Amino acid sequence: LLSESNARLGAARKLTSSRGRREAGRFLAEGPQAVREALRHRPGVVIELYATPAAAERHGDLIALAEHAGLTVDEISPKSAGALSETVHPQGLVAVCRTLTRSLVDVIADGPRLVAALVDANDPGNAGTILRTADAAGADAVVFAGDSVDPYNGKCVRATAGSLFHLDVVVVDDPKELFANNLLSLATSGLGAVELDDLDLSVPSLWLFGNEAHGLPAAVLEAADVRVRVPIYGHAESLNLASAAAICLYASARAHRFNSAGPEGPA
Amino acid sequence: LLSESNARLGAARKLTSSRGRREAGRFLAEGPQAVREALRHRPGVVIELYATPAAAERHGDLIALAEHAGLTVDEISPKSAGALSETVHPQGLVAVCRTLTRSLVDVIADGPRLVAALVDANDPGNAGTILRTADAAGADAVVFAGDSVDPYNGKCVRATAGSLFHLDVVVVDDPKELFANNLLSLATSGLGAVELDDLDLSVPSLWLFGNEAHGLPAAVLEAADVRVRVPIYGHAESLNLASAAAICLYASARAHRFNSAGPEGPA
């Protein structure tokens, strides 16, 4: 067992804070699902892997996968695993990963068809859930803009359920940068003039989702090509942010699918 | 200010436990949004209303609305308000409400077009979010079946954002009861044989959503008319329960809308 005073383990513990992650350019991915997706989808992204003896035994396949990738797996105590965890029930398996962030310019140069951007979204669970949904909908990238939560926050990483390693992650300080491209920008708003089902979503699109309580900033609403309203059929005042994002992103996925492989064949 | 040892206040405090709610047939609705929707949409459902002096001042409109409905608003200390709250930041405004549960037989007799059922869903935040989405999608009722969370759990009530008062709430112990009706029953499953976009959703439907980790029980999957898969376009293994529910319920809402008021006119 690695001692609690081990220097590498001490450096890993610092990654539970936003500042520690920023200074090191590294973050923690906890649990078998996150570790598996990191090892499978992102060669080289896992730098260190820590496991309690129980977790190492339970997840022999992952330990083998890690060793095959040239990693040495360090065994740690449950107490040390708890100190690396942001969950109530630590899973005993934690990877130190390089941050994956790409620049928006590079991502746009690749010609993405579907991008989701969070502007000032500050709930890490919601942000991670939206990233997971964006992955399921086939999005190429998720942008964390303005005062949004750190994508490498432990709660956010956990809510992505491994999807963080499946698509491009971008961090942008000034939301204005979101509009310097050819994507159709779609700002979600309960007061949007265009209803979701009336949109042509077959073109490459950038969805903009705002803060859980306050929505999108006025400047972002104005800068977007379209202000879109998800229709409300009952008496609800609004939708939860992650639910609205799921409806919008899947509307795009459906349009892309039926436009490129529908009855008329590829567009 | 009402004393902390006041008998009514003591009875209200017991409603923070599932057992207390069951025994009294009452529950707590906290915060201005829940209280407003209860007073507006469900005459007679609010039995008592408690407010801190600060909350009473901040929400004078609600106090007036309550008094207009014949209620006496009791002022309580912030400490008493905290004891009635299940949130980290108590909002100082709490209503004691009659539980709203209807029987499934009565709900079905009304001829609903869209019903959502949770089977063994045990995360109160997810359950409340799905109820809120069901309301937005125009659903007539939400059923809490099997080992699902208590719909009147404080965290669930909060996540509904007032929607709990907008539609019918049903509790069913045995999920078998869900199938004794003419609704098209749609079981969500990552392994479902039919893809969401290939379904005809224009008929009255019952959506079935399972447990966050284990999905729907085998018996429910078998009993349903159709096993439905939400397509995954990227590399995500699955969708978050509430996100999947949002996509499915809005697919139904869209089908109902375009079938009853589309270009061809009412069906």
Q: Could you explain how this protein is built, in words?
A:
The structure is a homodimer of 267-residue chains. The first copy, chain A, has helices at 7-13, 18-24, 32-41, 53-58, 60-68, 78-83, 104-109, 124-136, 154-159, 218-223, 241-261, and strands at 26-30, 46-51, 73-75, 93-98, 114-119, 141-145, 168-172, 184-188, 194-195, 205-209, 226-229. Chain A is 36% helix and 19% strand. By secondary structure, the first copy, chain A, is of the alpha/beta class. The longest helix of chain A is centred in the C-terminal third of the chain and has 21 residues, at 241-261. In chain A, α8 runs parallel beside α11. Chain A is elongated and about 60 Å long. The N and C termini of chain A lie far apart (58 Å). The first copy, chain A, has a 7-stranded parallel beta sheet. The A-B interface holds A 33, 37, 41, 129, 132-139, 159, 161-163, 166-167, 197, 230-240, 242-247, 250, 253-254, 257-258 and B 33, 37, 41, 129, 132-139, 159, 161-163, 166-167, 197, 230-240, 242-247, 250, 253-254, 257-258.
The proportion of strand residues of chain A reads: 15-25%
For the termini of chain A, the CA-CA separation is 58 Å
Question: Roughly how much helix do the residues of chain A carry, as a percent range?
Answer: 25-40%
Question: How many distinct beta strands of chain A?
Answer: 11
What spatial order of strands do you see in the largest sheet of chain A?
A: 7-6-5-10-8-11-9
Shape of chain A: elongated
User: Most extensive chain contact?
Assistant: A-B, 41 and 41 residues
Give a quick account of the main beta sheet of chain A: strands, pairing sense, barrel closure: 7 strands, parallel
Count of helix runs of chain A: 11
String of helices and strands of chain A: HHEHEHHEHEHEHEHEEEEHEH
Mean pLDDT of chain A: 94
**Radius of gyration over C-alpha positions of chain A, nearest whole angstrom:** 20 Å
Oligomer: homodimer
